[in-house]
Amino acid sequence: MVEKTDSGIEEGKIEGVELIELKNISKQYCKETTILKDIDLCIEDGDYIALMGPSGAGKTTLMNIMGCLDRATQGEYFLEGGLCTVRIFDSREV
After folding, report:
1. Residue/partner pairs of 54-61 with CB below 8 Å, 24 or more apart
2. How does pLDDT run across 41-82, given as a tens digit for each residue?
3. How confident is the model at residue 2 (pLDDT cuts 50, 70, 90)?
4. Closest by alpha carbon to 69, among 27, 41, 40?
5. 40 contact partners, CB below 8 Å, separation of at least 6
6. Closest to 79 in 3D by CA, of 47, 45, 50
7. pLDDT at position 5
């Protein structure tokens, strides 16, 4: 489906497909510090979202996971319906 915006630009939308879907995402450091716990999130084409919360709530960690700059300790991340896996390289591998 193609929609025309107020500016006249046509935008394509994928009906019924989540662009980003997080299922039970958790992130821990050193097994004692839990940053994110069991996060479920679904962002569909055309959605506008805002992440809000106090300092240290995990907003940047969540954005880093969604941007493939970091990986979750557990859970699944789907990008346009496909499972997204992130491999973090050790500096010795580069």
Report:
1. 58/27, 61/27, 61/35, 61/36
2. 999 988 999 999 999 999 999 999 999 899 999 999 998 888
3. very low
4. 27
5. 22, 23, 24, 25
6. 45
7. 55
Q: Specify the amino acid at residue 49.
A: I
Residue 17 has pLDDT above 70, yes or no: no
DSSP for residue 43: E
CB 23 within 8 Å of CB 42: no
Q: Note the residue count of the chain.
A: 94
Residues 16-37: b if buried by 16+ CB within 10 A, e if exposed: eebbbbbeebebeeeeeeebbe
27, two tokens: 């992130």
Can you tell me the mean pLDDT for 21-50?
92
**What's the CA gap between 59 and 88, in Å, rounded?**
20
Is the pLDDT confidence value at 93 over 90?
Answer: no
Look up residue 32 and give its two tokens.
Answer: 């004692």
Which spans in the chain are helix H? 59-66
Residue with tokens 């106090």: 54
